[in-house]
Amino acid sequence: MIRFRSIFWPAVFALTMAGGAWAAFLRFYYGLGASTHLTDQFPWGLWIGFDVLCGVGLAAGGFTLAAIVHIFNIKTYKPIVRPAILTAFLGYLLVVVALMFDLGRPYRIWHPLIMWNPRSVMFEVGWCVMLYTTVLFLEFLPLVFEKFKLSKAQRILKFFMLPIVILGVILSTLHQSSLGSLFLIMPHKLHPLWYSPLLPVLFYVSAIATGLAMTIFESWHSARAFNRQLEYPLIKRLTRVLAVSIAVYMTMRFLDLYHRGALATLDTPGIERWLFGLETVLMAVPMLMFFRERTRENPTAVYIGVVMFLLGFVTHRLNVSVTGLEASSGVSYVPKWTELAVTLAIVAGGFFIFRLAAKHLPVFGEEEPEEAPTLPVLSGEACQPVLSRGD
Amino acid sequence: MSRAVLYDSTLCVGCRQCEEACSTRWKLPYNEKIAAEEVISSHKLTAIRTHGERFSRKMCMHCQDPACASVCPVGALHRTAEGPVVYEEDRCMGCRYCMAACAFQVPTYEWDARLPKVRKCDMCADRTRSGGVTRCSEACPAGASLTGGRDELIAEARKRIREKPGEYYPRIYGIEEVGGTAVLMLGAVPFEQLGFSKNVPKQALPALTWNALAHVPDVVVMGSVLMGGVYWISHRREEVAKEEGRP
To answer: B98 lies in a domain?
Structure first.
C-alpha cells in the first residue's frame, strides 16, 4: 500500500507532463488551429478563460496577505505570508507560460513595452502583470537571501519593502479588476447574467476572496505533505474573513443582477441558467458553511468548503470568458484534448515547483523571531493572547 | 474627407466579382470552392451571402470609433484619417482581443499558420487614401458597392429610400451602429433577415472600457495615500510601545 502510494503520484505527474509536452509540440509545430478548437467566431478558450483569468485570481493571495500583514499590521497572519507570496509568484509565472501558448506570436510578448496603446485594457493588464511579477520576485527574494544567509542583501531589500508592498497592492488592484474590464467591450456578446458594468469590481472582490481561499488550500496541503502542524487557529480566523469576503461578493453580485433586471433571464431555458445556478451554489454553500462555528472547528469541513468555493470561482470566470459568450457566437466551443493537456501540465508543474520550493527554501517556519514573538503556529492555546488582542 | 462604401443589397446580383477582386488584391487564392464559402475567413476578406433571392455582403464595417483598435494592446490596428481601419502585422502579438471585441465578428485569424496574423478588409486604404475607389466597388458590374465620401453616400442612400420607398427597408445600416461605421448598407428587408446582428449596440464601444480605464490614475493615487495612511496608523501602536520601552 505504501509502495503503491509512493509510485502513484509521481506516475500521474510524469504522465501529465508527458501529455503536456506532446501537446506543446503540436501547438508550436502545427499552430493554434491544429491544437485548439478555437475559431474566428470563438477566439478565446480554455487557455485565456482558465489559465490566465483563473490563474491570476488564484494567485491573489500574495497581495491580500501582504497587505493584511505588512500594511494593516495584523501580525497573526505572518506565518502564512510567505507561502501566499510563493503561490502568487509561481501563479504569475505560470500565467505567463500559459500566455506563451495562447499568443499567436509568443515571441512578441514584450511588444506592449514599446508599442503603447493606453486605451487598451489588455495593455494595462500586460503592464501591471509584468510589474507585479517583478514585485512578487522582490517579495520572494528574502526567502533566497535567508537560505543562503545573505544578510546584507536581506537588510537592503527590507528597507525598500514597504513601497514594494504598497506598489504590489496597487498593481494587483488595477489588474485584478481590469481582467473584468476586458469584457466590458462586449455588451452584445456576453450573456446578461454575466455582463455588467460592475465586472471590474466583481472580479476584484472575488479575487480577494479567492486569494484567501487559496491560502487556506495550500496551508492544508503543505501541512499534509510535510507532516507539519496546520496553523489551525490562524486558518480558523482566516475562514471567518473568507466568509465575510464571499458574503460581500455575493451581495454585490445579486444586487447588480437585481438592478439590471438580469434575474428575469432565468426564465429562459438554456444552459446559462444552470451554469449560473452551479456557480451560485458553489459559492453560497461554502459561505454558509464558513459562517457556522462547527464548520470552522473542523479542518476537513473547512477544506471541503474551500475547494467548493474555488470551483465556484473558476465556474464564474469560465462563465464570463467562455460559456457566457457561446450563445451569441453561434458556435459551440469544447476545448480540444491538447488545450486540456497543456492546462493540466501547467497546474501539475505549479504543484511540483511549489513543493520543491517549500522543501528547500524557508517558506514555513519562524523567520525573524524578534519581530513576531507570539507565533500562534502550534496550538490554539498559543494564540490565545493574540486572539484576545482584538486586531 | 472620410471615405466610405455603400452596399445596396437590392442592386446586388450575387455575381461575387467583389470577392474575386478582393482576393486578387490580397494575393489570396480564389476558386469555386472558396466562392461557395459564405463566411469571411483569413483567406476570404469579403463574402456574399445568399438569403433566398436576396444577397448581403459581409466585410469590415470600418467603425468610426473601432473597438478593435481601442482594445489592441500594441496598437496594431488603427483608424486612418480617411476612414479605413488598418492592421500592422509587424506589431501584432496574436492576443486576438480584436476578434473578441469586434461587434461584427470581422477580424479573422490564420489558424493554420505557425506564425499567424489577423486578416481583415482594409477598405483598400492605399487606393482610398488618394480619393480612389475600392477594388470591390471597381469590380461590381451592378453598382451595388459604391466608394465615396461618407456624407455623400448617406445622402445618396436617403435619396434612394425616398425615391423608391417600396423597394427599401427605410433604414441605413451603419449610421447608428456602434456609433457609426464607414460601410453603409441598404436592403429591401430588415437587416436581421440579411444576416446582420440585431444586438449591435448603438453607442461606440470603446467608451465602455474607457469608463473603467479612466480610473487607473485615481486608483494609483488614492491607493498610495490609503495604503500609506493605513500603514502609518496601524504601526503607530508599536511606535508608542517602543517609545515607552514596552515590548
So the answer is: yes
**Quick one: B76 and B35 in the same domain?**
yes
Do B156 and B83 fall into the same domain? Answer: yes
Residues B134 and B91 in one domain: yes
Tell whether B110 and B223 lie within a shared domain.
no
> Is residue B209 assigned to a domain?
no
Interface test with A, best of B227, B231, B238, B246 (most A CBs within 10 A): B227
Cell of B44: 476570404
C-beta of residue B160 within 8 angstroms of C-beta of residue B186: yes
Say yes or no: B24 and B56 in one domain. yes
At A391, which helix (H) or strand (E)? none
pLDDT in tens, chain A (391 residues): 567 778 888 999 999 999 999 999 999 999 999 999 999 999 999 999 999 999 999 999 999 999 999 999 998 898 889 999 999 999 999 999 999 999 999 999 999 999 999 999 999 999 999 999 999 999 999 999 999 989 899 899 988 999 999 999 999 999 999 999 999 999 999 999 999 999 999 999 999 999 999 999 988 888 887 777 767 888 999 999 999 999 999 999 999 999 999 999 999 888 999 999 999 999 999 999 999 999 899 989 999 999 999 999 999 999 999 999 999 998 999 999 999 999 999 999 999 999 899 889 988 865 444 344 444 444 444 444 444 434 4
Q: What is the CATH number of the domain that holds B78?
A: 3.30.70.20
Inter-residue contact B118 to B106 (CB < 8 Å)? no
Distance, in Å, from the CA atom of A105 to the CA atom of A270, rounded to the nearest integer, reads: 36
A-interface mutation test, from B78, B95, B231, B238, most A Cβ less than 10 A away: B95
Same domain, B226 and B179: no
Q: How many CA atoms lie within 13 A of A169 on its CB side?
A: 25
Same domain, yes or no, for B9 and B37? yes
Check: CB of residue A66 under 8 Å from CB of residue A84: yes
The answer to whether the beta carbons of residues B204 and B65 sit under 8 Å apart is yes
The count of domains in chain B is: 2
CA-wise closest residue to A241 among A56, A69, A55: A69
Chain B residues whose beta carbon lies within 8 Å of the beta carbon of residue A39: 111
CA distances (Å), A340 to each of A55, A254, B162, B165, in order?
Answer: 15, 32, 57, 55
By Cβ distance, the residue of A33, A105, A181 closest to B212 is A181
Q: What is the DSSP string of B221-246?
A: HHHHHHHHHHHHHHTHHHHHHHHTT-
ipTM value for the complex: 0.92
Burial group, residue B33, by CB count within 10 angstroms (0-12, 13-18, 19+): exposed
What is the domain extent for residue B223? 215-243
Identify whether residues B225 and B149 lie together within a single domain: no
Indicate whether B113 belongs to any domain.
Answer: yes
**Closest residue, chain B, to A41 (C-alpha):** B105
Nearest to B220 by CA among A200, A128, A89, A72: A128
Per the listing, cell 482610398 goes with B128
Chain A, residues 195-234, CB within 8 A of chain B, namely: 197, 200
The answer to whether residue B183 is domain-embedded is yes
